[in-house]
């Protein structure tokens, strides 16, 4: 006996539990049986039974998943809390687990029931589980019992009276007479011995069932493949001696009479003594109706016993023939003449053993009735096991006993002959068999000593005639299970049958019989080769038979399906595996119950996936039909096999219900079409790199509409994840079949087609897009535009924008018309979605759709409307950055192709802008204005670009009054964005829109109401775009510049003289830091409460000469004359010292980068400190006066007027300006150095007429100079202005671009301006003087 596997244990138990849950009669019966079994169940178990009753009934009506979860949980809790187990509680717990869809737990508990009460389990509760799992292991016990029983029956016994005399004419049949005859031959001693044997037999079954149940539980509970390490347990056979008596257990039992043994009427389980009614017995009640036993439908609780005529070894003592002789295999009835030998007594030992095993494995699904309803006719014919449940007759008809049927012709015998092997055949059939050169028995395959047929078996013929007289309306059906396909194994090559051949006439009727034999071999054979041959036979029957419904029903049973699965697990024959997968696929495609059977155990699906990955491409069809979760398919790594199947496109030689390539596409579509699939980008990358996408595209022309839709979904996902494949798809796709199928599919599939087409027309060439749009418009059975319009009118909110966008593009292929229902409906749908805040996703989709209608796309299909509109606004830098980000390539400007493409793009843009803007006299602008108020960043951004684009296009189109409508809706919104937007590009878009309003006098007048805010914003944008300069000129009345624009107002002044001079000041993120000569550092408010002190600290012992802030703003660095540099942590409004570095020298002009700090020591040179430790002295030959550190380069302004550049990475020096030692005995030091926008500004003494010189930091060339009227001691630079602080308290303001003075600030003191700082917005100037004052000036 081979070791059990978890799958082989789970399958029959799960099948039984599913059947119990789905059939109310079955679960009522098994619960009743368990309820009546001692010990009496606990009250808690009865309460659990009450809770589960409703759940069980609802599971039969619907599905277990819809049962009440609260009732199930309560019942489970009660059952788990029981102190002791009863059969009822164990059975209830198993059913509870089954309702919860826990097959493993349910199986373990059901095996507990077999261990707790084996007899109840195998007889009343789960006989099918016993026969499938336990019976094969217990075959030796059954062999032993049969031998002992045969020994008892073979002993001498009194001769019975003739059966005919013992039977009155009251309706009893000849079969009943045979049963009574057997009783009359049995002695009292035989009966008592049989009774003791029966009790011992049951004890052995119980003991072995318990042990084997524990073994099966261990198999299920074993981790991984640990179950393989242990085989099945040894059988327990030590309770009996060789004579059948008990050795250890059991006392004297009360003997029963023959009548007590044989005639136990009303006992539910039938006695094995009467189980010798083999496959030839028909226990159907002749009278029918209510006289039938109420347990008639119950399966046999014991394996089928060996027929009496096989077990009796000795001939009848009186040698009589007739009905009594039928019970023995010897006697005159079996002689072909008076001198013939008794073949039955010399049957080959192997043949007898084979027949006994067949009988033991056979299920006796018959009615257990009283002895009066039993019948047992026996003939010489030894048929293999048959299913009596198939022999139930229609009302008014009787099935002939199966021993009356010829195994070749499947009809009642007319001239029966019995061969020397004991098998009986119709004379004409066996004669034809022999005439074809055969010399063996068709059933046993034994060699015949003589091919001369014996005389007719008249005994059997008389019995048949008698039965036909009693049953004139019987149906002469064929035998359900002929012995073997060998009966019809004809050598057609050498012996072609004649048209009137008996065997040929029977072949059609016998095909189902041969199929049943093949099924039997598939399900029960322990020989792999025999099971494989059965699979091939079943395939032939499936293809050739015209009785497909009958064969489908036979092959769809769970036992047969499990047999096929076992072939998949064990066979290594490629052809057998392919045929098995073919058959399972055919069955699964026609019967959903097959899918349920195959998906009960996960290992079955895993086996099929493993075969598919090993190259069995047909397995993918079965995997597709089973529809496993897409997550599990990814986890099992099926993608590579799916891609290979799609790429190869091998010919389907088996004629599968679905081609393997098509099934692979369906599975791939199931994976990719999930919106929440996070691995989709990776999978799409694999499809593109392996060129699978190109092999999928032709399936758009597939015959199956479902395949077309699936491919459209796959390609849609590919374009969304990697838009660069769009060009390949557009180049190779044939859209006509897909468009023709559009009207035939569901709404969901129609929308997927629309999405696919919408994505496809996002190519980076306008002319190609229009060619595709023409194909979409003109192909198809019906008008595509009309179909889209109908769909749009009933579309969901999140579908409408996509449909409307495609419909509007198709409508614009022709010249714009005054009235177009398609255009009107499409734009109305877009506006409706954009103005509906209840559906934010639809709002965003509508805004993005309008944006994409501009018509420009990158190579990946991303809209380029934002980049194009920024280009219109003169933001060339932003335009180039966006184009690089989208990796959009352009054709050389002077190429003919580019000129045509540009013309096509411009024409499309004008037509689309006119259609959108003119709809309902600018109704779209109202919707865009609402979108600009949205808090959703995506909606705001898309609406801003669309509004700026359409407003700009109005200045290029003839004015029909729409420009005024747009101004009314959007002007205030654009001014607000221009004033407060954080991103420069957003300001530029608003500026472009406002510029279009300046073409009208009314628009220019409206703009003057906001001139202050507009001019301020234009001042910032002037450096980025020439359009800002042009607008400033228009707003300032045509003047090129206006000095009064630069107005500064003193906001606040504070006196810090108690802390001495203010030597350093810096602004950062609404905070102002100041350093004082007494070592104090102060923190001030930099916003509303300007220069309001919030914190101060004095940890330096001497003057704080310089301050610096890290890029993140989290650290403040201070340099002091006390020879230290302190690092401060900036938290909210306070600073805390976290590090102190000893510099060994007083610190002047501290500048800080990421990992280094530079400062001017007391003597010559510059010290460079690494925060990790260590420093070095640079430029030791110069006395440095000021420093600037920018991008790893240090700029030094020296005491002798020279300026050097030091590359800190390489240590190289460069001289920007050569200094002079002295001029007229006076020094000419550089007082301030700053670097801004690649220019170096250096302030020194105005000896040569230019106190401030401007150098190029890249090539050291002088690009400009300033000649202030004051002696400069400090300097600050903003985006537009240069501030020069003097030693007399005056600050001069110069234009950075034109290098002209635009203003002067008076600090109100004659003290030197020590330092200045400008905030990030360039709207606040901080001035610190030597008398301890700090002033704040605002730019207005």
TrEMBL record:
Its EC number is 2.3.2.27. The keyword Transferase applies. Residues 399-474 form the U-box domain. SUPFAM superfamilies: ARM repeat, RING/U-box, WD40 repeat-like. Keywords: Transferase, WD repeat. It holds the Pfam family ARM_LIN_2nd. PROSITE patterns: U_BOX, WD_REPEATS_2, WD_REPEATS_REGION. The keyword Aminoacyl-tRNA synthetase does not apply. InterPro entries: ARM-type_fold, ARM_LIN, ARM_LIN_2nd, E3_ubiquitin-ligase_LIN, LIN_N, RING-Ubox_PUB, Ubox_domain, WD40/YVTN_repeat-like_dom_sf. Residues 244-264 are annotated as: Disordered. Pathway: Protein modification; protein ubiquitination. Residues 244-259 have a biased composition (Acidic residues). One of its GO terms (biological process) is protein ubiquitination. It catalyses: S-ubiquitinyl-[E2 ubiquitin-conjugating enzyme]-L-cysteine + [acceptor protein]-L-lysine = [E2 ubiquitin-conjugating enzyme]-L-cysteine + N(6)-ubiquitinyl-[acceptor protein]-L-lysine. This is RING-type E3 ubiquitin transferase.
